[in-house]
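Researcher: We're teaching a course module on how sequence relates to structure. For the next exercise, students receive a sequence and then see the predicted structure as tokens, so they can try to spot secondary structure elements on their own. Here is the exercise chain.
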Amino acid sequence: MEARAKEGYAGSGSLADAGKKARCAELAMTWSWLHHAKDLVEQGQVRPVVRGMKIPGVRAVLRSASSKSEVRQTAWSGLKCGRTVSVYCSEERDTALRLCGWKAGQGEQLLALPETGHVAVAARKAAVAIFNLDLRKALQELQAGSALARNDGCTDLANILNMVCVAVSGYTSEGDSDLWREMVSSSQSSLPHPALRAIFAFLTCQDESYSSVLEEDGLLLVDRLGFAATFLSDQALEEYIE
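Model: And here is the predicted structure for the students to work with:
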């Protein structure tokens, strides 16, 4: 705290500047989110839902819904099979996804995360792609992260991302295979990043509670909220955000 104070932490400058001086990943993430949400409000992309509230939070937005969400059976992008996933949609859920940095409209910027290592960046981008049912993009993010790690001399990290890429690729043809699910589940806990573990928790999940994803320790709050706003029913979502 003393070091942050000496650097002028939160004394002046923008919300983004405060995040850079936070000296704490979670605190930096908080400032990044506030900066992101403030921009959305100023651009008119997100409207305050409570009088006097300058920046609406995800819970306030979701609770402002006046009708039930629509359930859509959504197909995977990058899969040739007809496998679908139940996705819940509403205007309020779309707004929540914007606040979480999962969705961007025209002229909007996605949530800028504090700088982290190659595995963290690639894992988070791949996880968000998977949660948006875009398998091809997830594989591209893992491959890009692996290449960056290798170029920086981080061979072990590059190999981990390559192995994850191969395992995710197996879902395209073996996603319904008990053997694939068993092999992936047995190795899941050894993965070095919560976003990577959440990927396989989602791919191997056999019910729609998705507790193994939502309870993954270390998964960013914005990503847990974005996931919940996408895949949980109205009742389950209300219970979760409570």
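Model: If you want an answer key for the exercise: The longest helix spans residues 25-42. The mean pLDDT is 82.
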